[in-house]
Specification:
- This protein is of the alpha+beta class and 322 residues long.
- The chain has 2 domains: 4-262, Protein Transport Mog1p, Chain A (3-Layer(aba) Sandwich), CATH 3.40.1000.70; 270-315.
- It contains 9 helices and 10 strands.
- Strands 1, 2, 3, 4, 5, 6, 7, 8, 9 and 10 form a 10-stranded antiparallel beta sheet that branches.
- β8 (188-200) and β9 (203-216) form a beta hairpin.
- α8 (274-300) runs antiparallel to α9.
- It is globular and about 70 Å long.
- The N and C termini lie far apart (75 Å).
């Protein structure tokens, strides 16, 4: 059942946060985070300068592995832009360095690091819950992603509770908890839930943000799903499963095509039984000798060798290679 009051509440809260964000002065030492350019569906991020000559995933292939609206349901549509709560509630300082690293990574959505090949990103808005979902997929260094996932797991345990001081001096309480992802989802995975609560223009508000990171071979996907009025608890896992399924299908197709190029179809002549080939040679030998003798007899009589005899003589010459 749809909840239209969530939409009205969302509009009011976003308006209040937009006013707060208008007063924000950019902090050069803080990551920028989700760009406004992400409002265009299936935009691509530029590859790293150190990308290999033959990346595992190109930008075009990465786009084909992105989530689609059909994967999410009728309540979702292409995003209209970055939600203002990103700057209003996630951009701030903490008094604990390890928790600052976690907050910065979540705010900038920079959990995977620099891509080593093609990458693409898309976003969706949920008008029922007033939530927003962002999905990024690309080629990355496998060892680097695994190290980042381990570090992320450590920070989840370390930063269960901390305080965020926003750019306007407001303080917000933050809670972090792990999000269990299916054990068969990709080759490695890590999920978390961040809840940021506090006073927003005189009203108590709480942002719930899920983050799921999954590695598949040398590729990885990052999904964030958050909103000010709660989120669908099942949407994060279901979206991650749909995205990884699409990515795995793409990689399987890519591997099959690569194997076909390495192992082209063999020449049918090479598939013949060597024993049968030898028997055929033995059968042809007597006729070849007779043809040769006939040609010699013709030459002795002063007659030119017939064309049929010449072709038979050439056929008796064994091939250069079997």
């Amino acid at each position: 059942m749809r909840r239209p009051y969530r939409v009205l509440a969302r509009v009011m809260a976003l308006g209040m946060l937009a006013g707060a964000a208008a007063c924000v002065v950019d902090d050069p030492g803080h990551p920028r985070g989700f760009p406004e350019a992400a409002s265009v569906d299936e935009t691509t991020a530029s590859a790293s300068p150190t990308a290999p000559a033959t990346p595992a995933l190109t930008d075009a292939r990465a786009r084909s592995a992105l989530l689609r609206q059909d994967d999410l349901g009728d309540a979702w549509s292409g995003t209209q832009g970055a939600a203002t709560w990103r700057d209003g509630l996630l951009k701030g300082r903490t008094d604990r360095p390890e928790c600052q690293a976690l907050l910065d990574a979540v705010y900038a959505e920079d959990v995977l690091g620099e891509p080593k090949g093609g990458t693409a990103v898309t976003g969706f808005d949920d008008y029922e819950y007033g939530a927003q979902l962002r999905y990024q997929v690309g080629a990355y260094d496998k060892a680097d992603v695994d190290a980042r996932l381990r570090r992320l797991g450590q920070l989840i345990g370390t930063c269960e509770e901390f305080t965020i001081t926003g750019v306007q001096g407001r303080e917000y309480g933050a809670e972090v908890a792990p999000v269990e992802l299916p054990g068969n989802l990709g080759d490695a995975r890590q999920g978390l839930r961040l809840i940021v609560s506090g006073d927003v223009e005189g009203e108590d508000s709480a942002l719930t943000l899920d983050l799921a990171t999954v590695r598949v071979g040398d590729t990885a996907a990052l999904l964030t799903h958050g909103g000010l009025y709660g989120i669908d608890d099942t949407a994060t896992t279901e979206a991650a499963q749909a995205g990884i399924k699409r990515l795995q299908a793409l990689l399987k197709e890519q591997t099959e095509k690569k194997n076909e190029k390495k192992d082209p179809k063999k020449d049918p002549k090479q598939d013949k039984d060597p024993k049968q080939q030898q028997e055929k040679k033995d059968t042809k030998a007597p006729s070849d000798e007779n043809s040769s003798e006939e040609g010699s007899s013709d030459e002795a009589r002063g007659r030119p060798t017939s064309r049929t005899g010449a072709l038979a003589a050439s056929a008796s010459t064994p091939p250069a290679s079997a």
